[in-house]
Design goal:
The chain is an all-alpha fold. The protein has 3 helices and no strands. It is elongated, with a radius of gyration of 14 Å.
Length: 65
């Protein structure tokens, strides 16, 4: 998902997507702790995507005030 795609989504969709992404991220980290992943860079990618979504949500919150 790119920045443009994130900005097109509604706030409710972003919150829903964020919850899903955080759940998958925690599950991925737990799996990686037990047995190494084929691509450990996916953990970094997922963490950055979560940060992008949180940044957009915060920007929208500040724009509403």
């Amino acid at each position: 998902m790119k920045k443009e795609e994130i900005k097109e989504l509604s706030t409710a969709d972003l919150k829903e997507r964020l919850a899903q992404m955080e759940k998958e991220y925690l599950q991925l980290k737990a799996t990686h702790a037990v047995s190494p992943l084929d691509s450990p860079a996916k953990i970094t990618h997922d963490r950055k995507m979560i940060a992008r979504v949180k940044t957009e949500l915060r920007a929208r919150e500040l724009n509403q005030k």
